[in-house]
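Pipeline run #58 for the internal structure catalog. This entry was flagged by the ingest filter as a single-chain record with no existing model, so it goes straight to prediction. Upstream metadata was stripped on purpose; only the residue string is passed forward. Reviewer on rotation: M.T. Logging verbosity set to normal.
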Amino acid sequence: MIDRRRLLAGAALAPLAAALPRAAFALPLFESVLMFVPAAPGGGWDGTGRAIEQACRAAGLVGAFQFENVGGAGGMVGLPRFVNQRKGMANAMMVGGSVMVGAGIQNRSPVTIRDVVPLARLTEEAGAIVVPASSPMKTWKDLEAAIRANPRAVSVAGGSSGGTDHQLLGKVIKALGRNPREAAYVAFAGGGPANAAILGGQVTAGISGYSEFAEHIEAGRMRALAVSGSIRIPGVDVPTLTELGLPVTAANWRGVFGAPGISAAQRQALVDLLTKMHASQPWREVLAQRKWADVFLAGDAFGKMLADDISSTESVMKDLGLA
């Protein structure tokens, strides 16, 4: 009787089991992952790390995530900690990106992005140049005229000194025929303080990834004058700098790195995890929701791209007097 009851119960549950996603039964590739974010909570790198967690857990690829945030100096405070304390740790990943490249050059840091293991470039986000809604500058041409007249009188808020936002401002000033060293750049440690300065009229304008301004733009608290990508951001009616007659493009890429000292097999396991995450439906939903450009590049190909980016960033940093 007991065996018959078990058989009947199993038969009743079979259709329910068939309806469940395969991920519900598959073992995760990693039981746990340490996600190291060399920035304060709430910024772009932290958002990327949280998005990776969301997609990996939804796709059944990772059982649990542990986060560690250590912010400051464009990643240069947290990076040495990751390098020294997580060496050889096969399930540790660090979020980083183009900002860290510039910060390492500017700070002449003994530990740089070269000291971690490139796993994958995930996203690219065009910069947006904004002003508060109360600003008398209604269009890009208004801001352009002010910069041409006197760059030092146009204060611009952004992320860490020497980072992607600062580099974009330098490129704009140079393209307008002025010296990039005249930039009146005001660096902030996170998106929250920078947004507060822009909204409060403490600076003339602001530069950051579009997603960090989106809420304020959509609410009418900020006005986006231009974006820095080679094409417009999908669904966003803001012209590119090239459309506006300025031959400048720039984008903030974000990627993931492994700890130094891991083996080739351990590196490949992390690359495989990120490759499967990239192919998953949850990750596609994240990209669409956050308007991130998908520029996935993994393994050695990402390593080559990183070397090229370091070289080109050094050139821009010299123009800014930061290298």
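catalog note: Residues 28 and 289 are 25 Å apart (CA to CA).
catalog note: Confidence is low (pLDDT under 50) at residues 1-25.
status: ready for reviewer M.T.
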